[in-house]
User: Fold this.
Amino acid sequence: MTQSDHEIDIALKSKLQSSSRPIPAAPSDEFSRILSRRPSRGLLSWTQLVPLSLGIATMCWLLIFNQSSNHLTNVTESEIDAFVLDSYSVTFQSLEDQELLGDASAAYYF
Amino acid sequence: MISDDAFRTIYNENASGVRAFLFHKCGPQNLDDLVQQTFIKVWKNASKFESRSSQKTWIFKIALNVAYDFYRKRGTVGELFQDHHLAAEANSDDKIILEQALSKLEPKQKDLCLLYYYEGFGIKEISQVLEVPEGTVKSRLHEVRLILKDLLKENS
Assistant:
C-alpha cells in the first residue's frame, strides 16, 4: 500500500463513517429470542420428513414390484400347465370326496 | 452441537459486529430478524466449523449469506449504501459525493468496501469472508480506490 492509498483510505473511512446513520440498538432479549427460535434437536422437520417418507415408500414399491416381476418372468409354460391341472384335480377330488359328482358328471365338467 | 454457554460467548463476542455489518448491508428494516437468523445458523453449523479461518470471519461469511438470501427472497440485487445508510443529518455535500461515488461501484466492490472501510477487516480476512484469493481482494481494493479517489478529487 502506498502513502497515497493510505491517505485515500483514511479520507474514505472518515467520510463514510461520519455520514452513516447510527445503528439501531439490539433488543435486550435478543439472545433469548435466538435460543427460542432454534430448531429442536433430534426431531425432523416437515420439510425433511415428507421427502424422506416419499423416498422410503418409493424404495418399498420398487422392491416389491421387482420381486413380483422377477417371479413372473421366471415361470415356464409347463409350470403354468401343471399349476392349472393341479387346480382342476384338487377341485374334482374335493367334489368327489363330497360325493357331489359321479364319474360321468366329472367328465362333463372336465 | 455446542453448549448454550459456549454459544452465549460466541454471541457476546460477535453480535454487535454482525449487527453493524447487516445494518450497512441491508438497512434497518428486518435487522433484528437477520441478526437472529445469522446466529441460529451459527448455532446449527458450529460443529462444522473447522478453524481454517478465524471464528469471526466464519460468522461474517454466514451473515453475508443471510444478507444474500434476504435480497434473493425480495427479488432485488443487494444495494449497499442506499438512503437507509446515509444519515439524513449528514453534510448534504458529503452525502451527494458519497452517493455518486458509491453508485459507481459494482456489488462485489461494495461488499469489499463495506468490510474494509466499515468493519475494519484486513485483506486476509476479507478473502476468507468473500471466499476469493487475497490477490483478488487487493486488485478489487485498488479498483475501488481509483474510482473513489477520482470522484472525491472532482468534488473536493
About this structure: Chain A touches chain B through 27 residues (CB under 8 Å). The two ends of chain A are 105 Å apart (CA to CA).
